[in-house]
# Entry
Amino acid sequence: MKLVKVHVQNYRSISDSGEIEIEKIKTVLVGINEAGKTALLKAINNLNPASDIEKVDILRDFPRSKYSEYVQNKSAEELKKTPLVKGWFALEQSDITEIETLPNFVDNLIDYSTFIYVRNQNYDYCSHDIQNFSKTTFGDIRKSTLRLIEALKINPTSQEIITAIESFLEKNKYDVFPISEQDSKEFIQFLEKSELKIDDDNEKEINRIAELTQLAKKNIFHAELLGILNKKLPKFIYFNNYIKVKPLIHLQQLADRQERQTIDDKYYDYGNLSLLKFLGYTPRELSNLGVENNSTDTDEFRKKRDERQYKLNASSIRLTNSITEIWNPNNSKDEASQLRVIADGQYLKVAVTDRLGAEIELDQRSEGFQWMVSFFIVFESQADNDYKNCILLLDEPATSLHALKQKEFIKTISKLAEKNQTIYTTHSPFMISQDELDLVRIVELTDRAIGTKVNNTIISNDPAALFPLQEALGYNLAQSMFTAKKNVLLEGLTDLWYLEGINSLFDKNLDQNIALLPVGTSAKISYYASMLSNNDLKSVALLDSDSAGDKAAQQEVVVHALGTKNILRTKEFLSREIKNSEIEDIIRETLASIFFTEYAIQISSEDLASDKTVVDIFKKADPKFSKFKLSKAFLNWAREHSSKDLTQDEIRNCEKLLESINRRLK
# Structure
């Protein structure tokens, strides 16, 4: 299953985070220090932690300023049900395949496209349910069951079953209550006995019994469904910079601390214990193998020693392969590549070998490499070989890396996220990629009384919260201006996402050397056009065909810097006239379909055929319409579709747009 949304409440700095949309691959939580990013990840981890974590405590973890007011007049049982974190999960194909093997599965009973499994974790209580699945209530069966009773009265031998059914209905008087799994099974038994009392040629009552049986089976299937989904719930693996594998471990001391339960620092031994789990040993087992042989069975002791050596060697190879696949070491720079786990008496050592064969302890390599090794050991040990069913929660990853290495590390996280849905926090602009801004959620804490809030759009009441994004955009813009010889100036971020999405639908037909630069508003086009022109860089501007676009296109600075041919207007790429057209109108039919998915509002064919901009049509249909939300939804849609899914007019519009940009920037 994939996590699609979370909601955190009543945890440390978080009173109510709001519902946070989670992306299918990776989600980036951006905010300043002390905004509540770590609290968010730790709360989310409580949905289904892969390992033992510190249990939440109402006294320690409930928002301190509201504690006294909240606990007043509440019983211990009520406090246990204090909301903590709620998660919404969508099905994957492997889940659907397994669901269809359930004993009471009925085809077409559930709509997989809208199916959502909900996990509600409170402080000391957990519940779960399924959205968009209406369980059968007593009201759904009562009238039809009473008619069945009337039909049974014709048979004088039916009195016993009639009495049983009447007693069943009398015991459950309230029509709004769903029928429990146990009651459903009991009711089906009554129906089976009733069928024996009905004449075979009474087709109406036979069909009635079949329909009632299906209604009762629906609730049994619901219980089966909850059971299997509970088992298939993804594990959450939380990792932060404090968790490290020590380069040298004294096995006997570690075993003693574990057995005496004197591990005070939850981070100090966590990495070490994860390493032992990764190797397949307890600390005591490996410690005993480090003791000199006092047994008379020398062969057995040697066999165990050899087994230890083989396991350590195999684990070293496995760890090296995992690291090199993600770390991608540069041998010309003598970056670390091979790892060895070595047992020597009571000591377990993690060493790194460079290309010259020199072997040094792990803590003598870079902080970034130590983080990577520690992460993989924790990940591999906690995942229990079920890597695809784990969600990674990375708290401020790669903070110890150089800024440029952080830029590269984004690719590392992307590789991890291909196999494991990932949520990571950062306040570094270098951990934010310009082409992934739709994955960003802003975490802010502007008022302690309100608590931490998470915005699903790139909007914040705190300018400091947006600083990493602004820095990331500024850095990427500066890099493009000095390195990219060809540039497309766009009015805003949503225009960037539309053009990126369109380009991906057509197998990225834009020249790969072209940089897409969102400048903020059409009013800023002149500044950037002038700077790029002064540096002898080729540029075009793509402007909406509205009044703001007209004003920008007519500015003398823009015309002088770009030339009239390189000022592209959206109306040039439409098959018919749309007044004040915007980039959205190039794909208006497809966007109408996506709008229906996002807002559950159908746009009429008459409106789509009109000369109004599609954005105005959407705003009229729903006053809460967001251009940001729609452009992000289109970008997600484009990742899973191709140009064949567009209309013929849209294909022509998009092809003309891409061809024009390529031609003007030859």
User: Anything to note?
Assistant: Residues 484-664 form one domain. The longest strand covers residues 2-11. The radius of gyration is 31 Å. The mean pLDDT is 88.
